[in-house]
Ferrochelatase (Massilia glaciei), 369 residues
Amino acid sequence: MSFRKEPPFKHGTVARTAIVLVNLGTPDAPTPKAVRRYLKQFLSDPRVVEIPRAIWWLILNLIILPFRSAKSAAKYASIWTRDGSPLRVHTQKQATLLRGAIGVRGHDAVRVVMAMRYGSPSLPEVLAKLKEDHFERVAILPAYPQYSGATTGSINDAVFAHYATVRNVPELRFIKNYAGHEGYIDALRDSVMASWEVNGRGEKLIMSFHGMPKRTLMLGDPYHCECHKTGRLLAAKLGLGPDQYMVTFQSRFGKAEWLQPYTAPTLEALARAGVKEVDVICPGFTSDCLETLEEIAIEAKHDFLAAGGKQFNYVPCLNESPAWIAALAEIAEQHIIGWPTMMTGPQREADKREAEIGRAAALKLGAAD
């Protein structure tokens, strides 16, 4: 087996620490070609689709990709911004603000970078660049609060696969989940209360999480339980009783049974039962994306109103909210304890500039809150 070429090393080189904020990914453009390329990488991951490879190859390449790419591209186009994909834009801003928030806490030497599990910037490319820049300590921070083998597990697979080709592997730490982290729950509570202040409070709060096949729960994946943990803690922070909120699951795919109750049918049933106003939040997504902006804020809203509902309030994802950035910094800090994170010796000008930019952004965000 051949290994990647190691970067030049000089004695006295300062070992450096990095945090990699990893999100799911997004197409490079809202076009059928770009979406097809993205979907092929995403849906080829055996963590995402647990079907025998030969059978799935035929389904994916002969049915799904030829017919779904254009339809998905149109959906992406409906939420695309001037700056690009919302998920990528928000994740990049979070990384910049996290760099500043970590710096404000005294960890000036920590670099924070963004990577995507699928699409660009790819996780292997980001890890390779950190190696070139002599980062010897790397913490992997998934953008997924709730662990699932299909999400966080897949990120870990990609990290291990990359370092299997590296001779001198850096020290690694993996953040598995933070479904019940108090700062994260508080940030969600603040988002809901801000929506209530502007739009009024609906009759029921729907907490919609990304769906997974029910089979994964039966095989021991903790995702379902962690979603309910988040939902229970958020409801408690908001003072909601069991009849005032629901945990549901969206984004079904295929004919197999998925985690229930399903979001869209639940909203339709509520409307037909006489519920006129609902608030919907997607706690499992820390950045707004196709699944929140199009599937929930557009499609689910249409379904609810068409079934007789009168008001549908979508609560935006945490995105760059000050409470969320503060929570993210606390989560990251808890996992880099013991690593040198202060600049020592000759400070690299690039590091100082990054620290100053990040701190200024974080302080500005805090002042605007």
